[in-house]
Fold this sequence. Notes:
- Chain A is about 75% helix and about 0% strand.
- Chain A has helices spanning about 1-10, 20-30, 40-55, 70-75, 85-125, 130-170, 170-185, 195-200, 205-210, 215-225, 235-245, 255-285, 305-340, 350-365, 370-375, 385-395, 415-425, 430-440, 445-455, 460-489, and strands spanning about 295, 345, 345-350.
- A two-stranded antiparallel ribbon of chain A has the order 2-3.
- The longest helix of chain A is centred in the N-terminal third of the chain and has 45 residues, at about 85-125.
- Chain A starts with a helix and ends with a helix.
- Chain B is an alpha+beta fold.
- Among the domains of chain B are: about 30-100, Orthogonal Bundle (Arc Repressor Mutant, subunit A), CATH 1.10.10; about 180-250, SH3 type barrels (Roll); about 265-340, Ferrous iron transport protein A (FeoA) (SH3 type barrels), CATH 2.30.30.90.
- Chain B is built from twelve helices and 13 strands.
- Chain B has helices spanning about 5-20, 30-35, 40-55, 65-70, 75-85, 100-125, 130-140, 145-155, 200-210, 240-245, 285-295, 330-335; strands at about 90-95, 95-100, 180, 190-195, 215-225, 230, 235-240, 245-250, 275-280, 305-310, 315-320, 325, 335-340.
- In chain B, a hairpin with a 4-residue loop joins strand 5 (about 215-225) and strand 6.
- Chain B is globular.
- The mean pLDDT of chain B is about 80.
- Chains A and B meet through helix 3, helix 4, helix 7, strand 1 and helix 20 of A and helix 1, helix 11, strand 10 and strand 12 of B.
Amino acid sequence: xxxxxxxxxxxxxxxxxxxxxxxxxxxxxxxxxxxxxxxxxxxxxxxxxxxxxxxxxxxxxxxxxxxxxxxxxxxxxxxxxxxxxxxxxxxxxxxxxxxxxxxxxxxxxxxxxxxxxxxxxxxxxxxxxxxxxxxxxxxxxxxxxxxxxxxxxxxxxxxxxxxxxxxxxxxxxxxxxxxxxxxxxxxxxxxxxxxxxxxxxxxxxxxxxxxxxxxxxxxxxxxxxxxxxxxxxxxxxxxxxxxxxxxxxxxxxxxxxxxxxxxxxxxxxxxxxxxxxxxxxxxxxxxxxxxxxxxxxxxxxxxxxxxxxxxxxxxxxxxxxxxxxxxxxxxxxxxxxxxxxxxxxxxxxxxxxxxxxxxxxxxxxxxxxxxxxxxxxxxxxxxxxxxxxxxxxxxxxxxxxxxxxxxxxxxxxxxxxxxxxxxxxxxxxxxxxxxxxxxxxxxxxxxxxxxxxxxxxxxxxxxxxxxxxxxxxxxxxxxxxxxxxxxxx
Amino acid sequence: xxxxxxxxxxxxxxxxxxxxxxxxxxxxxxxxxxxxxxxxxxxxxxxxxxxxxxxxxxxxxxxxxxxxxxxxxxxxxxxxxxxxxxxxxxxxxxxxxxxxxxxxxxxxxxxxxxxxxxxxxxxxxxxxxxxxxxxxxxxxxxxxxxxxxxxxxxxxxxxxxxxxxxxxxxxxxxxxxxxxxxxxxxxxxxxxxxxxxxxxxxxxxxxxxxxxxxxxxxxxxxxxxxxxxxxxxxxxxxxxxxxxxxxxxxxxxxxxxxxxxxxxxxxxxxxxxxxxxxxxxxxxxxxxxxxxxxxxxxxxxxxxxxxxxxxxxxxxxxxxxxxxxxxxxxxxxxxxxxxxxxxxxxxx
Lengths: 489, 348
C-alpha cells in the first residue's frame, strides 16, 4: 500500500482536476506495482487489527488449571496404542446396538404392515370389488414394496443415526478422522472419509450426504464415489441370509454361526479395502486435477444434547432418507408386479427377460433371476431377496410356495429358502458371487439421486453408478471362471 | 457347457484392451483426442508464439527454428509459414520473419490465454506445478478473446502468471517482468524472485523441487563458475549456474533489505509443547490451500503450538488462536516459524 501512496504523493501537482480516465489509467499503472500479494497484506492487517482489539477487550484467566481435562481426553483417544482399540470397541458397540435393537421394532413393523395391514387391504379391496389388476398393482406391487422397505430400513436407521450423531456431538468423531487420516492420506483421501464411510454402513444415501463435512472438493468426490463400497444396512440382511444358508452350512453345526459371521465380516472388510483401492485410483487419475486442501478442526468436547440430537437425526437423516426410499420403492413395486403379471405370447415379461439375461448371469456365476432382481430392485437393496424368491417361484412354476405372481415374500425357515434356491439352480458359487455382487454393484436409486443432488454433475453420478457395476461384473466373472477351473480340475 | 479357461483368457484380454484404450492420460482414446486437437489452427498459433518470443528475445525466427519448436518437418513448417503469410499474420523479408500488427495481436492473445490458464491451474485446480505449462499449452487454443476476459475477471484480473510472467492486458499491452538473472547479483545482495522460466520442463521441475517461487526473497551468498549458493525462503540452495540462470530477480535497495536470513525452521520442526510464531507461508503453498490456512488465522505473527499428534505421528493438532486445528506434515512444512524460546503466558 505504501508504494501506491508514495507514488501518488510523489507525482507532480495536478494542474487540473483528474478526469475519470486519468484515475483509471493511474489505477491500471499502479496495479502492476503493488505486487501480487496485496490481498495477503490486507488480510494480515485485518487479523492484526482484530487481535489488537481482542487483546484490549478480552480478559483471560491468567493461570491455567493444572489439569486440563480436554487435553487428557485427547491424549487418550488419540493415543498410539489406545486410540485404535477405543475406536474399534465404540463402533462394535454402535453396530451391536443397531442390529440387536433393530430386531424388535423391525419384527413389529413387519407384522403390522405385512401381517395385519396387508391382508386387511386385500380384504377391503376384495369386498368393494376392485378389479384384480388394480388390486395387484396397488396393493401387491406398490404397497408391499413400500411396506417392505419401511419395515426393514426404518428401525436400524432410527437407532444408528442418533448414536452416530451423539458421537459427533460429543466431539469424538473429529478425533476419529484425526486418527485415521494417515491411512486415508495414502489413498489420496481425507480423514473425514472415515466418518462418511461409517455413515455408509448405515445407509449410503446418508453417507453421501455426510460427505459435506469434507471441505476439499477432490476428497469429497472420492468419498462420494466410493461410499457405495461401505456395506449398507439394506445389504447386511442379504449377506447374513446367504452366508448362513450356504457358507455356514459347509462347517460343522457348532461352527456354522461363526463361519457365516466371518464370511459377512470378510465381505464388509473387502468393501473397506475396495474403498481404499478405488480412492487411490481416482485420486491418481480422473480426479488428479481437482482442488485438494486439508484442514481438520478439533472442536472442544461438549456434553451431548440428547433431545436435540434425537430430533435432528430423525428429521435430517432418518425421515429424509426414508422418504426418498419410499418415493423410489413404490414405482419399483409396481414394475415388479407388472413384469410378473403381464403376459406376452403366453409367457410373463419377467420370464422373457430372465431367459435373455440367463447366459450373462450364468457366465458370471449368477443367473438371470438374480440379474433381473437387481435391475428391478434398484430402488432399495432390501427387496432384492424377496424379489429373487418371487421370480424363482415364477420361473419354476411352483404352486405351493409364495404368495402369487408379482407378490414378494420371504420364507420363514432358512432351510425352505435354501431348498427353493437350490431348485432354482443355485450352487455355492452362486451364493459366493451373489455376496460379492451385493457388495460391488451400482448404488440404489436413492443413493444415485443423492449423489446427483450433492455433486450436481451427471458425469460424476454416472461414474459413481457405473464404476462399481463394472467392477462387480469383472470380479464375479473372474471368480466364476477360476472357481470352475478349480472345481473342474 | 463352455470352457472356463477360454472364458478366463478372453476376459483377461478384454480387460487388457480396455485398459490400453481407456487408461487416463496414457490410453489410446486420450491420445487420439489430443492428436485431433492438434489442428492447423493450433500449429499456426504455436508458430505465432514462437515468432513473438524470438522478437522479444532478440533472436531470429527461421523456418528451421519454427520446425524445431513445433516438432514438424522443415517442409511442413515452410508450408505453414506460407499459409500464415497469406493470411496476413506474418511478413517475410529475405528470410527474416516478422509479425504483422494482426499477427502480434493474435500472438498476444494466445500468450494471454496461456498465462491465464496457468494462473487458473495454479489457483483453482489441484494439478502439480510441473503440469501447468503442458496443460496450458493445450488449453490456450480453446479460448476466445471474450472468454479470456471472463476467465481473467474470474481470477481477479491477475497481473502475473504463477511463474512470474506478466499477463498481457486485454488491450494487448505486455509489461516486461523487469528482472535480471540471479547470476547478475553481487555476493551478499538481496533481491526478490520475479520469474522462473518454465521451459525446458526438466529444469523448471528442478526449480520447483527446490521450493523456489516468484515473490520470495533471496540473498546471494556465493557465486563461482561451478555453483551458485543463495538463501531463499528460509532455506539455503545450491544450484549449477546453468540452472540458476532460469531464475530472474529484481534487486532490492539496502533500504528495502529483507529481514536477515533466519534459520529456516518450519512448523514441522516444532516438537509437541514447543511454541512458535508464524513468519511466512511458503510461496509454494498457493490457491485454495493457501487461502484455507489464512482463513484459519495462520498468518505471520500468529502464535502456534503443536499439542498432540495422531497415532501415526501425522497429522498433528496445533493450537492457533485458541482453536485446535489438525494439519498434515506437508502443510506444516510450508509454514515458516520462529521459535519462541520461553513459552510466555501472555495472550496472543
